[in-house]
Amino acid sequence: MMSQSPSGRDPHLTEIQGEGAERITALKWARYLSGTFGSSGALNALRLYAELGWISEGVRQTMTDYVRGLSGGATSTVAGSVDDDLPKELESLAGTPFHQHAKSLEFITTIANESLSHVLASTTLGEDLSGPSDLGDPSDLTGPGE
């Protein structure tokens, strides 16, 4: 049975299976998060995604392990190595504070093998990410130099 997130929704990504492609994409996502937000910001982002119902608690734990397992050298050059273009469904978020989180949603839907359009129909990015949160200072979720 699928457990609901604190948002009351079933998570879009409930598990990261042992399939090679899923694990590789999850590792790329961990590198993206670490390179974009730094280690502590990446962990805060994962907590936010679990709170929003994007990922399950189990996925958050797995991704937390991946982020913590990355060495400083592995994350320092990653931000430029991940394709930063967003799919057409998310293009309107390019250049906004939500761009980096939209990229995470793209990783989530890829790993979950879900349609991004379907997920967007049930997710309100602006309301979810700009609403009150007990995750601390929102500036912790911005990338270096912003």
Question: What report would you give on this structure?
Answer:
The chain has 146 residues and is mostly helical. It has 7 helices and no strands. The termini are far apart. This is Archaeal flagella protein FlaD/E domain-containing protein. Pfam families: Arch_fla_DE. Residues 9-112 form the Archaeal flagella protein FlaD/E domain.
**Shape, per Cα inertia axes:** globular
Total of domains: 1
Helical fraction: 55-70%
Give the biggest sheet: none
Give the terminus-to-terminus CA distance: 41 Å
Rg measurement, Å: 14 Å
Order of SSEs: HHHHHHH
**% residues in beta strands:** under 5%
Helix count?
A: 7
Please give the number of β-strands: 0
Report low-confidence residues grouped into runs of 5 or more.
Answer: 75-81, 126-139, 142-146
Q: Please identify the structural class as seen in this structure.
A: mainly alpha
Task: Average the pLDDT over all residues and give the rounded result.
Answer: 77
GO biological process, one term: archaeal or bacterial-type flagellum-dependent cell motility
Protein name: Archaeal flagella protein FlaD/E domain-containing protein
InterPro entries: Arch_fla_DE
